[in-house]
Structure formats: structure tokens, C-alpha cells
């Protein structure tokens, strides 16, 4: 397992369209996933300890963003499931149900979308404003392979609340850290 950090936010970079199958039986596009005040695109997977450490907060924070701030979320799984069976589409369905994901969980089987976005690790967060211009590319919070203690700053939640209110993300952002995306050979 290679641990990587995400690059600095490329402010105002437009979101890239996609059409990906979800564990809910629907195909999801950028337009369909978008919220009235923006969209959080997350590259996650099932096996990564960095993602497992944030499941509870991820579900809680994305629910708050959707219900209180008009920002929808979508999670994209781009890993090669041949390398990690835990990342299979069937297991994606199980994880989505087990954690009661309040967002679509979709498969990027070709890995084209992860490459187009420049995703490097799981979790990798891309926070967009209402015009679908990038405003956040940072961490959820200070969790690593273990969940950080209660009361820590919730970087992603605070940043996306600011995006919902002002259309702009914070100038200072701490990169997300996680396992490298498992690229096909």
C-alpha cells in the first residue's frame, strides 16, 4: 500500500462530465448528481484503511451538506477490483448499504474518470460550487488510518459550507492523504 497526498486545489477548474453505473441500479452523470449549491466528488474504495477510518464522519458530513447547504455528493470507486477483491461492485453495494451512504456510489471500471480528474488516492475530494468550478481539494479532517478524536476541525465540512454560502473555497487547504489508486496494468 502506497500512501499519497493530493495536489493543491486548482481553483475554478471545471468539473468533468461522467456517466457511471451506481450500486442503486441507476447511471449517474455530473448533471444528475449536482446540487443547487454545488457537488462534492469523492474518490473512495472499500478496502482502504484511510477510507474506513472516516466512514462515520463522511456519511454525517455529506448528509449535513445535502440537507442544510444544498451540496450533493457522489462517491466514485476507480480501483482495479482484480487487485483488491474487496473493491468489487458487489462489495460496493454491501458497503453502501452497511454505512447507509446518503450519496450515489458509482463504479469507474475503465478508470478514465479518475485519470481525467487527476485523482491520486482514496479518499480524494473535489469540492465544486454551483457553477461546477473546483473550490476544494483537501482532507476530510485530520484522520489518517485511525479516526481522529471528536472535536477536531472538520476541514471538508467547513470548506464546503463556505462554498455553499460564497461560491468560493478557503485559500488554505490541507491535502487529503490515502492509499494510491490501484491502476490497471
From TrEMBL:
Ranges for domain Thioredoxin: 9-162
Superkingdom field: Bacteria
Q: Which SUPFAM superfamilies match?
A: Thioredoxin-like
Pfam families according to UniProt: AhpC-TSA
Q: Which residues form a coiled coil?
A: none
The cross-references to CDD domains, in alphabetical order and at most eight, read: PRX_like1
UniProt-recorded name of the protein: Thioredoxin family protein
Amino acid at each position: 500500500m502506497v500512501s499519497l497526498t493530493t495536489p493543491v486545489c486548482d481553483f475554478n477548474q471545471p468539473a468533468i462530465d461522467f456517466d457511471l453505473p451506481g450500486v442503486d441500479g441507476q447511471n449517474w452523470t455530473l448533471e444528475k448528481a449536482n446540487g443547487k449549491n454545488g457537488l462534492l466528488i469523492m474518490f473512495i474504495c472499500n478496502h482502504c484503511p484511510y477510507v474506513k477510518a472516516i466512514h462515520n464522519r463522511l456519511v454525517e458530513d455529506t448528509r449535513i451538506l445535502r440537507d442544510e447547504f444544498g451540496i450533493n455528493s457522489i462517491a466514485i470507486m476507480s480501483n482495479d477490483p482484480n487487485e483488491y477483491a474487496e473493491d468489487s461492485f458487489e462489495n460496493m453495494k454491501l458497503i453502501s448499504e452497511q454505512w447507509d451512504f446518503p450519496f450515489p456510489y458509482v463504479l469507474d471500471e475503465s478508470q478514465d474518470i479518475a485519470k481525467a480528474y487527476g485523482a491520486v488516492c482514496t479518499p480524494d475530494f473535489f469540492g465544486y460550487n454551483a457553477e461546477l468550478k473546483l473550490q476544494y481539494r483537501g482532507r476530510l479532517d485530520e484522520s489518517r488510518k485511525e479516526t481522529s478524536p471528536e472535536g477536531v476541525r472538520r476541514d471538508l465540512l467547513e470548506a464546503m459550507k463556505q462554498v455553499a454560502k460564497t461560491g468560493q473555497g478557503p485559500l488554505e487547504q490541507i491535502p487529503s492523504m490515502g492509499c494510491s489508486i490501484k491502476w490497471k496494468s
